[in-house]
Amino acid sequence: MKYIDIFLKNVAQVVLINNKWTGLFILIGLFIADWKIGLAAMLGSLLALLLAPYFNYSSEEICDGLAGYNSVLTAIGLALFLQSSTLSWIVLIIGVILTLPVGSAVREFLKPFGVPMLTFPFVLMTWLVLAMTTQFSKLPVTIHILPQKVQPPDISHNHISWLSGITTNFSEIFLVTSVIGSLLIILGIFIGSIKGGIFAVISSILAVIFIVSLGGDYPSVTNGLYGYNSILTGIALGATFKTKLNTYIAVITGLLLTVVMHGAVATVLAPVGLPVFTAPFIFATWLVMFAGRTNGSDKA
Protein backbone atom coordinates (compact mmCIF):
# COMPACT_ATOMS: atom_id res chain seq x y z
CA MET A 1 0.00 0.00 0.00
CA LYS A 2 2.88 2.36 0.75
CA TYR A 3 4.13 2.20 -2.82
CA ILE A 4 0.66 2.67 -4.27
CA ASP A 5 0.26 5.77 -2.08
CA ILE A 6 3.55 7.19 -3.37
CA PHE A 7 2.62 6.32 -6.95
CA LEU A 8 -0.62 8.30 -6.64
CA LYS A 9 0.91 11.18 -4.65
CA ASN A 10 3.46 11.69 -7.44
CA VAL A 11 0.49 12.63 -9.61
CA ALA A 12 -1.30 14.66 -6.94
CA GLN A 13 1.73 16.85 -6.23
CA VAL A 14 1.48 18.29 -9.74
CA VAL A 15 -1.33 20.39 -8.23
CA LEU A 16 0.65 20.84 -4.99
CA ILE A 17 -1.50 18.49 -2.93
CA ASN A 18 -0.26 15.59 -0.82
CA ASN A 19 -3.18 13.17 -1.10
CA LYS A 20 -3.40 9.77 -2.77
CA TRP A 21 -7.10 10.16 -3.60
CA THR A 22 -6.35 13.39 -5.41
CA GLY A 23 -3.84 11.48 -7.51
CA LEU A 24 -6.34 8.71 -8.23
CA PHE A 25 -9.05 11.10 -9.44
CA ILE A 26 -6.53 12.98 -11.58
CA LEU A 27 -5.35 9.73 -13.17
CA ILE A 28 -8.91 8.68 -13.96
CA GLY A 29 -9.54 12.10 -15.46
CA LEU A 30 -6.41 11.86 -17.61
CA PHE A 31 -7.37 8.44 -18.97
CA ILE A 32 -10.83 9.76 -19.85
CA ALA A 33 -9.26 12.77 -21.56
CA ASP A 34 -6.60 10.79 -23.46
CA TRP A 35 -5.44 7.28 -22.59
CA LYS A 36 -1.97 8.06 -23.92
CA ILE A 37 -1.61 10.95 -21.47
CA GLY A 38 -2.86 8.75 -18.62
CA LEU A 39 -0.38 6.03 -19.54
CA ALA A 40 2.48 8.52 -19.72
CA ALA A 41 1.56 9.88 -16.27
CA MET A 42 1.64 6.36 -14.84
CA LEU A 43 4.99 5.64 -16.49
CA GLY A 44 6.51 8.86 -15.13
CA SER A 45 5.24 8.14 -11.64
CA LEU A 46 6.47 4.54 -11.72
CA LEU A 47 9.97 5.48 -12.87
CA ALA A 48 10.21 8.15 -10.17
CA LEU A 49 9.00 5.68 -7.55
CA LEU A 50 11.67 3.17 -8.52
CA LEU A 51 14.61 5.51 -9.09
CA ALA A 52 14.18 8.54 -6.82
CA PRO A 53 16.11 6.89 -3.93
CA TYR A 54 19.21 6.84 -6.15
CA PHE A 55 19.12 10.59 -6.88
CA ASN A 56 19.43 12.20 -3.46
CA TYR A 57 15.78 12.42 -2.47
CA SER A 58 14.88 11.89 1.17
CA SER A 59 12.39 9.27 2.31
CA GLU A 60 10.01 12.06 3.30
CA GLU A 61 10.19 13.66 -0.15
CA ILE A 62 9.59 10.32 -1.83
CA CYS A 63 6.67 9.38 0.44
CA ASP A 64 5.02 12.78 -0.07
CA GLY A 65 5.30 12.58 -3.87
CA LEU A 66 7.71 15.52 -4.03
CA ALA A 67 10.33 13.46 -5.85
CA GLY A 68 8.05 12.28 -8.62
CA TYR A 69 5.63 14.94 -9.81
CA ASN A 70 8.08 16.56 -12.23
CA SER A 71 8.75 13.17 -13.81
CA VAL A 72 5.00 12.73 -14.30
CA LEU A 73 4.81 16.02 -16.20
CA THR A 74 7.93 15.30 -18.25
CA ALA A 75 6.44 11.99 -19.35
CA ILE A 76 3.20 13.70 -20.36
CA GLY A 77 4.97 16.52 -22.20
CA LEU A 78 7.22 14.22 -24.21
CA ALA A 79 4.42 11.75 -24.95
CA LEU A 80 2.41 14.64 -26.36
CA PHE A 81 5.08 16.38 -28.44
CA LEU A 82 7.33 13.54 -29.62
CA GLN A 83 5.85 11.64 -32.55
CA SER A 84 5.11 8.14 -31.32
CA SER A 85 7.74 5.50 -32.16
CA THR A 86 9.87 2.98 -30.31
CA LEU A 87 12.77 5.43 -30.26
CA SER A 88 10.61 8.30 -28.99
CA TRP A 89 9.40 6.19 -26.06
CA ILE A 90 13.01 5.30 -25.23
CA VAL A 91 13.90 9.00 -25.30
CA LEU A 92 10.84 9.71 -23.16
CA ILE A 93 12.00 7.22 -20.54
CA ILE A 94 15.50 8.70 -20.53
CA GLY A 95 14.05 12.21 -20.22
CA VAL A 96 11.88 11.16 -17.29
CA ILE A 97 14.84 9.58 -15.53
CA LEU A 98 17.04 12.64 -16.11
CA THR A 99 14.32 14.83 -14.60
CA LEU A 100 15.15 13.27 -11.23
CA PRO A 101 18.78 14.49 -10.93
CA VAL A 102 17.79 17.80 -12.54
CA GLY A 103 15.18 18.16 -9.80
CA SER A 104 17.74 17.39 -7.08
CA ALA A 105 20.11 19.97 -8.53
CA VAL A 106 17.42 22.66 -8.78
CA ARG A 107 16.23 21.91 -5.24
CA GLU A 108 19.74 22.30 -3.82
CA PHE A 109 20.37 25.47 -5.84
CA LEU A 110 17.18 27.08 -4.53
CA LYS A 111 17.47 25.85 -0.95
CA PRO A 112 19.48 28.87 0.33
CA PHE A 113 16.79 31.17 -1.07
CA GLY A 114 13.94 29.39 0.69
CA VAL A 115 11.83 28.81 -2.42
CA PRO A 116 10.62 25.47 -3.83
CA MET A 117 11.61 24.07 -7.22
CA LEU A 118 7.94 23.81 -8.28
CA THR A 119 7.70 22.39 -11.82
CA PHE A 120 10.94 23.92 -13.12
CA PRO A 121 12.71 20.54 -13.59
CA PHE A 122 9.87 19.41 -15.87
CA VAL A 123 9.93 22.60 -17.90
CA LEU A 124 13.71 22.63 -18.27
CA MET A 125 14.06 18.95 -19.14
CA THR A 126 11.18 18.94 -21.62
CA TRP A 127 12.43 22.12 -23.31
CA LEU A 128 15.89 20.56 -23.63
CA VAL A 129 14.61 17.33 -25.17
CA LEU A 130 12.31 19.11 -27.62
CA ALA A 131 15.02 21.60 -28.58
CA MET A 132 17.55 18.85 -29.27
CA THR A 133 15.24 17.13 -31.76
CA THR A 134 16.21 19.61 -34.49
CA GLN A 135 19.64 17.97 -34.51
CA PHE A 136 18.40 14.40 -34.95
CA SER A 137 16.41 13.17 -37.95
CA LYS A 138 14.89 10.19 -36.14
CA LEU A 139 13.14 12.29 -33.50
CA PRO A 140 10.25 14.08 -35.24
CA VAL A 141 7.97 16.22 -33.10
CA THR A 142 4.37 17.36 -33.37
CA ILE A 143 5.24 21.07 -33.15
CA HIS A 144 7.42 23.38 -35.25
CA ILE A 145 10.73 23.88 -33.47
CA LEU A 146 12.66 26.81 -34.99
CA PRO A 147 9.87 27.81 -37.42
CA GLN A 148 11.12 29.44 -40.62
CA LYS A 149 8.66 32.29 -40.23
CA VAL A 150 7.22 33.61 -36.98
CA GLN A 151 3.59 34.62 -37.38
CA PRO A 152 1.82 36.93 -34.94
CA PRO A 153 -0.85 35.08 -32.95
CA ASP A 154 -4.18 34.64 -34.71
CA ILE A 155 -6.59 36.27 -32.25
CA SER A 156 -10.27 35.55 -32.73
CA HIS A 157 -13.19 37.10 -30.84
CA ASN A 158 -15.95 35.18 -32.60
CA HIS A 159 -17.11 32.87 -29.82
CA ILE A 160 -16.21 32.12 -26.23
CA SER A 161 -17.52 29.64 -23.67
CA TRP A 162 -16.77 31.01 -20.23
CA LEU A 163 -17.79 27.80 -18.49
CA SER A 164 -15.63 25.65 -20.75
CA GLY A 165 -12.66 27.95 -20.28
CA ILE A 166 -12.95 28.02 -16.50
CA THR A 167 -13.34 24.23 -16.43
CA THR A 168 -10.76 23.07 -18.99
CA ASN A 169 -8.10 25.24 -17.38
CA PHE A 170 -7.77 22.32 -14.96
CA SER A 171 -7.08 19.57 -17.50
CA GLU A 172 -4.62 21.82 -19.33
CA ILE A 173 -2.38 21.65 -16.27
CA PHE A 174 -1.66 18.19 -17.71
CA LEU A 175 -1.54 19.46 -21.33
CA VAL A 176 -4.88 18.00 -22.40
CA THR A 177 -8.32 19.54 -22.99
CA SER A 178 -11.26 17.68 -21.48
CA VAL A 179 -14.33 18.90 -19.61
CA ILE A 180 -14.99 15.55 -17.92
CA GLY A 181 -11.31 15.10 -17.13
CA SER A 182 -11.27 18.60 -15.65
CA LEU A 183 -14.27 17.89 -13.43
CA LEU A 184 -12.52 14.84 -12.00
CA ILE A 185 -9.36 16.86 -11.42
CA ILE A 186 -11.39 19.56 -9.64
CA LEU A 187 -13.05 16.89 -7.48
CA GLY A 188 -9.65 15.42 -6.68
CA ILE A 189 -8.29 18.80 -5.62
CA PHE A 190 -11.24 19.41 -3.29
CA ILE A 191 -10.82 15.94 -1.78
CA GLY A 192 -7.19 16.73 -0.99
CA SER A 193 -7.69 20.32 0.13
CA ILE A 194 -10.92 22.31 0.32
CA LYS A 195 -8.88 25.48 0.71
CA GLY A 196 -6.77 24.55 -2.30
CA GLY A 197 -9.91 23.78 -4.30
CA ILE A 198 -11.49 27.14 -3.49
CA PHE A 199 -8.36 29.05 -4.48
CA ALA A 200 -8.06 26.93 -7.63
CA VAL A 201 -11.60 27.65 -8.83
CA ILE A 202 -11.41 31.35 -7.98
CA SER A 203 -8.05 31.61 -9.73
CA SER A 204 -9.45 29.93 -12.83
CA ILE A 205 -12.39 32.35 -12.93
CA LEU A 206 -10.19 35.41 -12.42
CA ALA A 207 -7.71 34.23 -15.05
CA VAL A 208 -10.46 33.99 -17.67
CA ILE A 209 -11.79 37.44 -16.69
CA PHE A 210 -8.31 38.99 -16.89
CA ILE A 211 -7.48 37.43 -20.25
CA VAL A 212 -10.83 38.23 -21.88
CA SER A 213 -10.59 41.81 -20.60
CA LEU A 214 -7.18 42.12 -22.28
CA GLY A 215 -8.56 40.79 -25.58
CA GLY A 216 -7.10 37.29 -25.51
CA ASP A 217 -7.91 34.71 -28.17
CA TYR A 218 -11.38 33.32 -27.43
CA PRO A 219 -10.80 29.75 -28.73
CA SER A 220 -7.64 29.51 -26.61
CA VAL A 221 -9.53 30.77 -23.56
CA THR A 222 -12.36 28.32 -24.23
CA ASN A 223 -9.90 25.41 -24.42
CA GLY A 224 -8.12 26.33 -21.18
CA LEU A 225 -4.84 27.28 -22.82
CA TYR A 226 -4.44 30.55 -20.91
CA GLY A 227 -5.71 29.83 -17.41
CA TYR A 228 -4.03 26.65 -16.19
CA ASN A 229 -0.94 28.42 -14.89
CA SER A 230 -3.12 30.72 -12.80
CA ILE A 231 -4.70 27.73 -11.06
CA LEU A 232 -1.29 26.48 -9.95
CA THR A 233 -0.30 29.97 -8.81
CA GLY A 234 -3.51 30.30 -6.81
CA ILE A 235 -3.03 26.96 -5.05
CA ALA A 236 0.65 27.63 -4.37
CA LEU A 237 0.24 31.10 -2.89
CA GLY A 238 -3.21 30.61 -1.38
CA ALA A 239 -3.04 27.16 0.17
CA THR A 240 0.44 25.65 0.05
CA PHE A 241 3.25 28.10 0.81
CA LYS A 242 3.51 30.84 3.42
CA THR A 243 4.98 34.28 2.81
CA LYS A 244 5.08 37.49 4.83
CA LEU A 245 2.49 38.94 2.48
CA ASN A 246 -1.21 38.83 3.17
CA THR A 247 -2.51 35.65 1.51
CA TYR A 248 -5.09 37.42 -0.66
CA ILE A 249 -2.63 40.09 -1.75
CA ALA A 250 -0.10 37.38 -2.58
CA VAL A 251 -2.64 35.45 -4.67
CA ILE A 252 -3.93 38.47 -6.61
CA THR A 253 -0.38 39.67 -7.23
CA GLY A 254 0.62 36.20 -8.34
CA LEU A 255 -2.36 35.87 -10.69
CA LEU A 256 -1.67 39.22 -12.34
CA LEU A 257 2.00 38.32 -12.73
CA THR A 258 1.04 34.93 -14.17
CA VAL A 259 -1.12 36.51 -16.88
CA VAL A 260 1.68 38.94 -17.75
CA MET A 261 4.25 36.15 -17.71
CA HIS A 262 2.14 33.91 -19.94
CA GLY A 263 1.83 36.53 -22.65
CA ALA A 264 5.48 37.53 -22.39
CA VAL A 265 6.90 33.99 -22.30
CA ALA A 266 4.72 32.93 -25.24
CA THR A 267 6.06 35.86 -27.26
CA VAL A 268 9.69 35.20 -26.32
CA LEU A 269 9.40 31.49 -27.15
CA ALA A 270 7.55 31.99 -30.46
CA PRO A 271 10.75 32.25 -32.59
CA VAL A 272 12.00 29.03 -30.99
CA GLY A 273 8.72 27.16 -31.20
CA LEU A 274 8.78 25.76 -27.67
CA PRO A 275 5.56 25.54 -25.60
CA VAL A 276 5.05 27.76 -22.58
CA PHE A 277 4.25 24.83 -20.27
CA THR A 278 4.12 25.95 -16.60
CA ALA A 279 6.88 28.57 -16.83
CA PRO A 280 4.52 31.52 -16.06
CA PHE A 281 3.37 29.82 -12.86
CA ILE A 282 6.95 29.13 -11.80
CA PHE A 283 8.29 32.63 -12.42
CA ALA A 284 5.26 34.43 -10.96
CA THR A 285 5.21 32.27 -7.83
CA TRP A 286 8.94 32.64 -7.30
CA LEU A 287 8.70 36.43 -7.59
CA VAL A 288 5.88 36.66 -5.05
CA MET A 289 7.66 34.28 -2.67
CA PHE A 290 10.85 36.33 -2.92
CA ALA A 291 8.80 39.48 -2.32
CA GLY A 292 7.36 37.98 0.85
CA ARG A 293 10.31 35.82 1.74
CA THR A 294 10.43 34.13 5.13
CA ASN A 295 13.32 32.17 6.61
CA GLY A 296 12.08 29.04 4.84
CA SER A 297 9.47 27.74 2.44
CA ASP A 298 7.25 26.21 5.12
CA LYS A 299 4.04 24.72 3.86
CA ALA A 300 0.72 25.92 5.18
From TrEMBL:
InterPro entries: Ammonium/urea_transptr, Urea_transporter, Urea_transporter_bac. It is a multi-pass membrane protein. It is found in: Cell membrane. Gene3D superfamilies: Ammonium transporter AmtB like domains. The record marks T278 as: Important for channel permeability. One of its GO terms (molecular function) is urea transmembrane transporter activity. GO terms for cellular component: plasma membrane. Its main location: membrane. Keywords: Cell membrane, Membrane, Transmembrane, Transmembrane helix. The chain crosses the membrane at residues 87-106, 113-132, 173-191, 198-218, 224-241, 248-266, 272-292. PANTHER family: UREA TRANSPORTER. Belongs to the urea transporter family. NCBIfam families: urea_trans_yut. This is Urea transporter. It comes from Staphylococcus devriesei. The gene is yut.
